[in-house]
Design a protein that fits this description.
- It is a single chain.
- With 237 residues, the protein is mostly helical.
- It has 2 domains: 72 residues, Orthogonal Bundle (Arc Repressor Mutant, subunit A), CATH 1.10.10.10; 148 residues, Four Helix Bundle (Hemerythrin (Met), subunit A) (Up-down Bundle), CATH 1.20.120.530.
- The chain has a two-stranded antiparallel ribbon.
- Helix 6 packs parallel to helix 10.
- The longest helix is centred in the middle third of the chain and has 25 residues.
Length: 237
Amino acid sequence: MSCLAAPIARTLVSDQVFARLIEPIFSGAYAPGEKLPTQRALAADLEVNMASVREAVKRLEQLRLVEVRQGDAMRVRDWRADAGLDVVVHLLFAAGGLDRPTFLAVLEARRLMLAEAARLAAQQRTEAQAKRLEGLAKSFAAAEAEPAAAQRIDLAFMTELVEASHNVVFVLILNTVRRLYLDNAHLFGALVADGGELAPLYRRAAAAVAGSEPTRAANAVARLAGEQERRLTEALG
């Protein structure tokens, strides 16, 4: 019996099979190039039907975590070399709980990307985008006593900032981060805690973008995102 064995519950079977397969791939229990058990063997070991296994394997293929060739074994791919940004969410929770190093890496990437987006936004934003950023900064100050509203405004502010950069790659990266944010809002509560202290940072960033000051905008957003990163890191303990 393989290391993936042990029957699993019948609810959301394909999701559970997917989770059972993805964890040893990320952990290195299966090395790149190594053969996985056949789909028939997996179905027997996990006591599920073949349809559930096929659906799970299809998801792994779409994420470029495994390679399945007709007449050949199913092999593990090197996810660090082959996978895309879509694996971040799965990597974050692969072991059944929050993976701290991955979470911190997401926050670091967020800070760096937003600072550069702000630099570009200050050079390329439209008048309408500048006004929306200033309006969102004011709205954040008004919502400091409502954490859920503050989180929504923060996301809207950062989305507007990235859109104003007119960098399609940043926009696509933000799409992935947004899904992570919305699906796990409880993890990001500290992002907007003590909103009264953060409100001036939003206003400063918006003013720099509106004033077409790239360096000032990048520095302002880096400070805002850095403060948020610090709070979330401390909240993790």
